[in-house]
Amino acid sequence: MNRRNFIQNSALTFGAFSLLPSGLWAKSVTDNPYKIKELRGGVSVFSEKGGTIAFLQTPKGLVVVDSQFQEQSQHLIDELKKLSTSPFKLLINTHHHGDHTAGNISFKGLVEHVVAHQNSLLNQKASAVKQKSEEKQLYPDVTFTDTWKQKVGKERIKAYYFGAGHTNGDSIIHFENANVAHLGDLLFNRRYPFVDRSAGANIDSWIKVLDKTLSTFDNETIFVFGHAFDPEKITGNKEDIKAFKDYLEKLLLFVDSEVKAGKAKEEILKSTSIPGVTEWKGDGIGRGLLSAYEELTEVKK
To answer: Strands 222-224, 227-228: parallel, antiparallel or unpaired by DSSP?
Structure first.
């Protein structure tokens, strides 16, 4: 179905949303809880509850990156079935957390393959066992270590693993022709991040991963972020990556200086700000402080 027919049909049949000019958010005309934003080259983003989803539409097949939760993934699937009769070729997970993979189950029997880094699969299985939710999972059946690539239609898709960051299994998914890269939770845009040390996260390594990201992609790349303080700023550019890298560097520097000054863990965790950090917001400052403290003191042992 072409774009004009889709807009006409959606206005007549389900009245869900109106696609506005490129760069603007789709505005709901009913009570739909989700938003869809077109980027370029057939790639769009879907936002409702959980980590941002990206999806590719081609005549040869559909590709979805991350799946939020089961209800949200079903909303996306329903919309994509209205947009296209193409088959679901790939579901790719940037990492294992439930707000990115709990919706995988909605794709069972629908998508040809689920792809993720091998550590993401291991983490997803371990989490499911711990939470007794194995029956609610759709696990990746294709895994990789450093890179993975596949062509769908005319689009070339490549996944990169640069090392531990938010977890030890975060990958970047690049739609090469569209030049859109989904960073997953390797980037929290102006929002205090979750650092999952139980799944191998490492802040120092995360900084190196962001350096590698900056050198791998060009200045025209549109980056998709897993989360953002402003829900309409889930995409951005290299300046956003540099800003987040600066936050992580300042976080480590501050906690290290506090440790060297002899301050106790409890005192450090009472901090309500990090020197030099002005843009990051939200309720999660303590998570980063604790993770940095544990990482730094663990190294010293």
So the answer is: unpaired
pLDDT at 63: 98
Model pLDDT, residue 15 = 32
Identify the segments of the chain with pLDDT beneath 50.
Answer: 1-30, 301
Domain annotation covers residue 113: yes
Strands 222-224 and 17-18: unpaired
Q: Tokens standing for 69?
A: 């939760």
The tally of domains found in the chain comes to 1
Predicted confidence at residue 16, as pLDDT, reads: 34
The verdict on residue 42 lying in a domain is: yes
pLDDT value at residue 22: 38
In a domain, 173, yes or no: yes
pTM of the model: 0.89
Alpha-carbon distance 193 to 182, whole Å? 17
Cα gap 277→257, rounded to integer Å: 15
Instruction: Measure the CA–CA gap between 259 and 94, rounded to whole angstroms.
Output: 33
Q: Helix, strand, coil: what percent of the chain each, to 5?
A: 40, 25, 40
Residue 236 host element (H or E): strand 235-236
Residues forming a β-bridge with 176:
none
Q: Are strands 235-236 and 222-224 parallel, antiparallel or unpaired?
A: antiparallel
